[in-house]
Amino acid sequence: MLTSTPHALRSDRPSGPLQATVMRAELAAMIDRATATDGAHETVIPRLALARASQMQKPVRAMHEPAFCVLAQGSKRVLLGDEVYVYDSSQYLVVSQNLPVSGQVIDASPEAPYLGLRLNFDPKDIAALGLELKLGEQVQRRASERGIFTGELSATLLDPLLRLVKLLDTPEDVPALAPLITREILYRLLKSPDGWRLAQMALVDSHSQRIAQAISLLSQRYQEPLRVEDIADAVHMSVSSLHLHFKAVTAMSPLQFQKQLRLQESRRIMMSEHVDAATAGHRVGYESQSQFNREYSRFFGMPPARDVKRLRELQLGARTNN
User: Fold this and answer.
1) Are residues 262 and 193 part of one domain?
2) Which of 167, 200, 233 is the last residue of a domain?
3) pTM for the full predicted model
4) Same domain? 187 vs 46
């Protein structure tokens, strides 16, 4: 476990290939000090959360908001549909759309815990900076791409990240400096080779921006029996274009996306409100209890009652260990 005191702005930091390695060690030391227990930890810095895990975890399904995800130590596997994205401390992960993913910590131990951070994006900030950088024409020329991608975590990105996390030591500086550093991080991401993929979801009239609208519509009305034609009309696309670009961004069709939303929300309802499977299934839009049980079992790997019992036992075990 790294316990040395970080110095994010040291002048004696080496240059060249070792620079990023040293900076990752500094970032790991900061996160290690700020996270005494396993789990996600919100911070005083808006939209910044830290994470820690002392052992490999089972996959966790969730709706992932647009975010910049960095690991200072350990590695993680993220699944979108049938696609697998694995990243470690040498890479970052960007999620540019609200996507139903499955995440799993795959490299962690008490001696070398998984240490990471997540910085959520505000689409308005992406749009404003994308316009300043004149990315609109570049985005319009390109076809829609997946709303998730990895990239090299270079010293150029690590530098503002270190300065941002270091603000946790001086919370009185957060209101003035955190927005500036967050903007710098976003700038670096948009200027990266795949930065246009992040800009896609926020720039007006791009296909990905319309898919973002469709995702928002599905998220708000997932309980309703929506027709694809209605979604296409709402976002001003043809049905064929909606299918093409929606699958390009999310790796699934609109109706498959809606099904995942329903199943994940039903799980949340059963866990947080202690209702039975029949009630949860009905509340998320299922008219047939047998269909709900069948699709839930296929998606989560076991029937609703067994799955919820297992999750509660895991939660109890985590609280006991911490």
Assistant:
1) no
2) 200
3) 0.85
4) yes
Residue 249 falls inside a structural domain: no
Query: How many CB atoms are closer than 10 A to CB 44?
Result: 12
The verdict on 186 and 300 lying in the same domain is no
Q: Out of 178, 200, 222, pick the residue that ends a domain.
A: 200
User: Residue 246 domain-assigned?
Assistant: no
**Domain region containing 141:** 17-200
Compute, in degrees rounded to 10, the torsion defined by CA atoms 51, 52, 57, 58.
Answer: -20
| Number of domains into which the chain is organized | 2
- What string of pLDDT tens digits covers the 322 residues of the chain? 344 444 444 445 565 568 899 999 999 999 999 999 999 999 999 999 999 999 998 888 889 999 999 999 999 999 998 899 999 999 999 999 999 999 999 999 999 999 999 999 988 899 899 888 888 777 777 777 899 999 999 999 999 999 999 999 999 999 999 999 999 999 999 999 888 888 887 777 788 889 999 999 999 999 999 899 999 999 999 999 999 999 999 999 999 999 999 999 999 999 999 999 999 999 999 999 999 999 999 999 999 999 999 988 877 766 665 5
Contact 185, 202 (CB under 8 A): no
